[in-house]
Amino acid sequence: MGETPGKMYALATVLILLAATAVLLRLYARKIKKASLAWDDYMILFAMLSTIGTALCMFVGTALGNLGRHTKIAPDGSPVFNHQLEINYASLMTSTLTFGLTKLSVLLLYKRIFRGALFLAFVWTMITVIVIWTVAFFFANMLQCYPISENWTGLGGSADACIDENMMYLGQAFSDAITDLIILAMPIPCICALQLPTKQKLGVIGMFLLGILTIAASVTKLVFFYKIAVESNSGDEDFTYLFTPTLYWPMVESSLGIVGACLPLFRPVISKLSPVRSIREIISFPSMSITSSKKASTDARKLEDGDSSSSAVSSADSIYAGGDRDDGRYFHRDLQVFVPRETGEVGDVGTKRNAVEERYHAGAPKGYI
């Protein structure tokens, strides 16, 4: 299928709606858990804003420029770009920001939900790498020609005024795909180490591995950039048509990246909307609501008074976690599964009372596995 203006409008519309839906569901999941926004949420909101900027570049480029069209030739034989070069330049800025902010959002999510000194050191190392990567390529794209106006007064400006654009684009696309792959693989050892049933481990890993769609888009973008570099060096002068994929493939990657970053946090929404889960709640909880709530209140008072006996804790677990929990596990608010206490968010909490309160505030009665 060739490039057409209709295809550009459709892609921009579908992709921005897909990303926006993922972000809204993420925020709704936070609302369900009555949790305040964390730094990873703010990063994804900023990434969403820059993705909107990339989508606007596609809309404007199609409406005013030559995006999705073959290059028009003026009577004097020179190509007519109709603002396409300015739009391509702006898109480079917005898409680079989106890639960096999305990666940072995922890394900050890892920092929030996983534990372990070695893993956290790796997370901080990757955060540093991504910050440097984002700043470096943002300014490399911005200052690839001097003066900056050379970016849109001619295709790439003169050889003396600009760096080798093709090499820079390929370098950015390659390093983008590599960092995506590293970030995607990072949590797998941590999840495998959790004392969870195999089916549940695979489910949690699967939520994270759906981000592989982003890598697929990133690799495809790399292939297109290489193809464009070869064709442009071979003398192909249909510039606006040739460079159209350099605008929409970053948009594809931006949208899928945001979706992949939000997917691991969707479980509260899915659970809330699941009719099977609702039936299980109706069957399970009314029968225990009166007696269990009284006993839980008594046990909560015992814990408050300093009674950390196993009977008080296990009874509180019964009402808070939907069943007796005598295996030292707690309900993980973000992964929405029961995990060993020492491996997760409350692993550093010093008292059993705080651990029980953490389960209660996480909404554990609604957290069936």
From TrEMBL:
Stretches with biased composition (Low complexity): 308-318
Keywords, comma-separated and alphabetical: Membrane, Transmembrane, Transmembrane helix
Ranges where the Rhodopsin domain occurs: 25-272
Membrane topology, record value: Multi-pass membrane protein
Transmembrane as UniProt keyword: yes
Disordered: annotated segments: 299-320
Pfam families: Fung_rhodopsin
Subcellular location field: Membrane
Keyword Acyltransferase attributed: no
GO CC terms: membrane
Ranges that cross the membrane: 6-29, 41-67, 87-110, 117-140, 177-196, 208-228, 248-270
Similarity field: Belongs to the SAT4 family.
Protein name: Rhodopsin domain-containing protein
